[in-house]
Design a protein that fits this description.
Length: about 450
């Protein structure tokens, strides 16, 4: 008696009509080593079925369920996104020989330890579009629910051309990226920092996307250029226009990430800090009126006297309660804490007292993200948002490590291998367009010469 569902190079399936897209077809083909083609007929909503396997029942608290038998297979999801995550888990179990493909018979339900599994990625001027495409696809394979995309001067805005470098991506290029993220079962979340990081460049290299191209626009910023002038009506209008363009490019969605971190000029100025509650109230309420839930980093709002090293907290004692009270009621607080390597993360737990949804945000460091995920599990946080910043050249395998910690269902051989090997395999599976030498893996070079 066979223990496998065996199939050849060409196969047909019945599925939710939303699965009939190029991303699903290309994933099937790539996980069949480019030798397998799938045709999709319209089937029941939130299902994917091949052969004569009976429909599988989805438990109420699960995102997907899979059943594979000798005569066929069936996947059901709580919605399209859950269905795609089940489909991804399924194709990761495809085995192959010289003549056919097979999947060992099994039953599986999703076992994610955190409901909202988010990732924040940055698009730097040094990133080419293909690298970002493969990164988005990798995040899909890791079964994230949301992907926050922040363009560091790399999206062309109509409202102010100096907000982007000359080689920035076009809106059509980004729309295609967003579409693919949705097809992979993730909600894409636009991000633009509307307080600190106004240079859209890394602090340590001194570049400024706006002022390096047009120094006459200094009036939009603090004197040092690092933060927006929060008292300026012109800044408020510009930021509103930026949000409108992001909404149009990203399409419908629940959230926008407005940053608001590391505005150091304001932490050092008693006079300017007086404007922060009014600014944050106006900004977050405007975003809410636009139909989005604002997400923002919390380092400027956490009490620096209460939370010492290893916590990141830059709010002034006696002022933080007023800042928290100024936020719109539906804000999502995102607490980045990178140096705390054991649970619990007290800052995130304390923020729950405000009544807001709280997301904890770790770094690409295993001990740190383990502590953050455990804190989220134990304290019932709204979610976890892995942040990647500038370190993907060396630490991209940490994305899969994080996914494992959240109980994502990965390759059947995962326990016998490592994160580097799994990441390399996953990137090969999502290199739909083909690679040059520099595009293989996650770094363009193996050594510096």
């Amino acid at each position: 008696m066979s223990e496998y569902f065996v199939f050849g190079g060409n196969i047909s399936a019945k599925s939710d009509e939303k699965m009939n897209n190029e991303t699903v077809k290309r994933l099937w083909n790539s996980f069949c080593l480019t030798d397998g083609e799938i045709s999709l007929e319209v089937g029941e909503k939130n299902t994917f079925k091949i052969g004569n396997a009976p429909n599988v029942t989805l438990p109420t608290d699960k995102e997907y369920a899979i059943s594979v038998r000798e005569n066929g297979l069936s996947v059901v999801g709580k919605d399209y996104n859950g269905l795609i995550r089940g489909f991804i888990s399924l194709i990761m179990k495809i085995e192959y020989s010289d003549s056919d493909f097979r999947i060992k018979c099994f039953y599986e339900e999703s076992e994610y330890s955190v409901r909202n599994r988010m990732i924040h990625i940055c698009v730097f001027p040094e990133n080419d579009l293909y690298f970002i495409k493969k990164l988005v696809r990798l995040c899909g394979l890791c079964q994230f629910t949301h992907i926050v995309i922040e363009f560091w001067g790399m999206l062309r805005y109509d409202c102010l051309k100096e907000l982007s470098w000359p080689h920035a991506f076009t809106k059509d290029e980004v729309r295609a990226l967003v579409k693919e993220a949705r097809e992979l079962g993730m909600e894409p979340i636009p991000m633009f920092n509307m307080f600190g990081h106004a240079s859209s460049s890394r602090f340590c290299y001194g570049k400024h996307v706006v002022l390096d191209q047009n120094p006459r626009l200094q009036y939009l910023f603090t004197p040092d250029g690092w933060a927006w002038d929060i008292r300026s009506d012109k800044v408020a209008e510009l930021l509103k226009n930026v949000r409108e363009e992001l909404y149009e490019v990203f399409g419908s969605g629940e959230y926008i990430h407005i940053g608001c971190d590391e505005a150091y000029y304001y932490t050092r100025s008693d006079k300017d800090r007086e404007y922060m509650p009014e600014f944050l109230h106006r900004l977050t309420c405007e975003v809410e009126s636009e139909g989005r839930r604002p997400m923002l980093w919390m380092d400027m709002i956490l009490d620096s006297e209460r939370f010492k090293h290893p916590y990141f907290a830059f709010g002034k004692a006696g002022e933080t309660d007023k800042l928290i009270a100024s936020l719109s009621k539906n804000c999502v607080m995102v607490d980045w804490q990178y140096d705390k390597n054991d649970a619990p993360i007290e800052t995130s737990i304390s923020l729950l007292e405000s009544g807001h949804d709280v997301v904890i945000a770790p770094w690409l460091n295993e001990s740190n993200f383990r502590a953050c995920v455990k804190t989220a599990e134990d304290s019932g946080l709204f979610g976890v948002m892995l942040t990647t910043w500038h370190i993907l050249r060396d630490r991209m395998p940490g994305i899969i490590g994080f996914a494992k910690r959240c109980n994502a269902s990965l390759f059947t051989w995962a326990e016998l291998s490592g994160d580097h090997e799994m990441t390399a395999t996953a990137l090969r599976r999502v290199s739909f367009e083909g690679n040059s030498y520099e595009d293989y893996g996650w770094s363009k070079r193996q050594i510096e010469t």
